[in-house]
Amino acid sequence: MEYIHKIKSPVGTLTVSSDGKNICGLWIEGQKYFAKTLGKDVSEQNLPVFEDVRKWLDVYFSGKKPGFMPPLMPKGSPFQKSIWNNLCKIPYGKTTTYGELAKQFELENKDRHMSARAVGGAVGHNPISVLIPCHRVIGKSGSLTGYAGGIAAKTKLLQLEGVI
Known about the structure:
The protein has two domains: 2-61, Methylated DNA-protein cysteine methyltransferase domain (Double Stranded RNA Binding Domain, 2-Layer Sandwich); 78-160, Winged helix-like DNA-binding domain superfamily/Winged helix DNA-binding domain (Arc Repressor Mutant, subunit A), CATH 1.10.10. Helix content is 33%, strand content 15%. It has helices at 48-61, 78-87, 98-108, 116-124, 151-160; strands at residues 2-7, 14-18, 23-28, 42-44, 96-97, 137-138. The strands form two sheets. A four-stranded mixed β-sheet has the order 3-2-1-4, covered by helices on one side. The chain has a two-stranded parallel sheet with strand order 5-6. Helix 3 (98-108) packs across helix 4.
């Protein structure tokens, strides 16, 4: 059984999913791959973990760095989870590139070459938007490329963090 809860935000309505204890998904309404990792047995409820997410989002959307993180349990392949883990290491108010993430992966996985394109695929399939900050990944020229929630949402999130 999975649970969902909807939260209004400055970037649109967010649908959050949980296994009852951990956050498994957070999608901006209309985003690419919306609820792709959500199972078929779903109930809409307001759980304590959803209140934690709401508190985190309230701090974040006020333009401040939240000092805590709700428990996260994204669903994906080991490769995707590795990339998503590295996304969580990008500091608030900072950005990185797909190429830099690929180099980081290579350092952590000796003798395994990784392309920026493969990293981009994993970043694009991040099932926990905003909390796992895929919006902080930009093109090597500094362009705001590829955000499943849309470039307008990515711009808004980076503006909140004082990046642009």
